[in-house]
Amino acid sequence: VRARVMEVTKSPEVSYADIGGLEEQMQEVRETVEMPLEHPDMFVDVGIEPPSGVLLYGPPGTGKTMLAKAVANETDATFIKMAGSELVHKFIGEGAKLVRDLFEVAREHEPAVIFIDEIDAIAAKRTESKTSGDAEVQRTMMQLLSEMDGFEDRGEIRIIAATNRFDMLDRAILRPGRFDRLIEVPKPDAEGRELIFQIHTRNMNVADDLDFAALAEDTENASGADIKAICTEAGMFAIRDDRTTVQRSDFEEAWEKIQAEEEDDEVSKT
Ligand code: ATP
Questions:
Q1: In this predicted model, what pLDDT tens digit does every residue of 77-102 receive, in sequence order?
Q2: 262: number of Cβ within 10 Å
Q3: How many Cα neighbours within 13 Å face the side chain of 55?
Q4: C-alpha 224 – ligand 1 centre gap (Å)
Q5: From atom 2 of ligand 1, which residue's Cα is the shortest distance away?
Q6: In the prediction, which pLDDT does 223 show?
Q7: Ligand 1 atom nearest to 69, measured from its CA
Q8: Tell me, what's the pLDDT at 26?
Q9: Is the pLDDT confidence value at 153 over 80?
Q10: Taking the CA of residue 95 as centre, how many other CA atoms within 13 Å lie in the half-sphere pointing to its CB?
Q11: How far is CA 230 from the centre of its chain?
């Protein structure tokens, strides 16, 4: 059961250099997650407790998971990921049991970074969600908070949660000693998009005169995940055209295609 719902990776292969933009967010993650893992003694010497949990919030595909993986890579920690939706179960006690398992696996693999994606699935305001009124979901959340309270020296295990729905969260989980460090991860601005294009074309054969700043201007509102998709799709356009060099028009057509697909998705959801 564990293997199915938990992703466990020793020192995942994502580094800070793979993340475009998000300088401030990287800095904050380093201070709140990396420092306590690498220098727990400093917190003891200074006489403060490191933040308990870090919450990353922002739109889908902006690099939240990457940030958590990069910090685990940098600290040579085991990355343990679980989606909040996996913790929502029909059977009484099952969600809480999974939470206990999650922390047990983390203790077995210290140093470890626990990453809980879609935390809103178990921590939505009662009024906002069908499931949150559910006593079982409440119990699962309580178990998570009690595990977080549980460790005295949290140095070797750090907890990062992520959500696309900050507005939906039950404020109780943001209290001190819980997820008390909030980091917003927004969509990239033009400069960020330019950096992300450079990262995702690193291994691509692009035209010598490709203007990355212009590409960034052309793709307003694209997330990092969109840019990754644009690069792959642009390569497909070049192949269809029997070229081995990818040019600006390929990227532009790719973005149009991806936007059209995203619109179709929106329509089919409503
Ligand atoms: P979700 O909320 O949907 O889980 P997320 O914020 O966790 O999304 P990631 O899983 O980190 O997003 O990003 C998805 C993919 O998009 C990454 O694997 C990466 O290829 C690309 N990506 C997203 N943001 C960035 C970024 N800032 N720099 C480089 N690549 C990015």
A1: 999 999 999 888 767 788 899 999 99
A2: 12
A3: 24
A4: 6
A5: 60
A6: 98
A7: 11
A8: 96
A9: no
A10: 28
A11: 20
According to DSSP, residue 270 is labeled -
| pLDDT tens, residue by residue, 217-254 | 999 999 999 999 999 999 999 999 999 999 999 999 99
User: How far is residue 83's CA from residue 213's CA, in Å, rounded to a whole number?
Assistant: 35
CA of 258 to the centre of ligand 1 (A): 16
Does the beta carbon of 198 sit less than 6 angstroms from any atom of ligand 1?
A: no
The answer to whether 248 touches 214, Cβ cutoff 8 Å, is yes
The residue behind tokens 């005169």 is: 209
Roughly what angle, to the nearest 10 degrees, separates helices 224-240 and 190-200?
Answer: 50
SS3 208: coil
Does any ligand 1 atom lie closer than 6 A to the CB of residue 228? Answer: yes
Residue 226 Cα to ligand 1 middle (Å): 9
66 close to 18: Cβ distance less than 8 angstroms: yes
**Dihedral sign of CA atoms 124, 65, 20, 245 in order:** negative
pLDDT tens digits along 168-182: 999 989 988 889 899
22 CA: nearest ligand 1 atom: 27
Nearest CA to ligand 1 atom 19: 225
Q: Which residue has the tokens 């990092």?
A: 224
- The Cα–Cα gap between 224 and 50 comes to 30
Where would I find the H helices in the chain? Answer: 2-5, 23-29, 35-38, 40-46, 64-74, 94-108, 120-123, 135-150, 190-200, 212-218, 224-240, 248-269
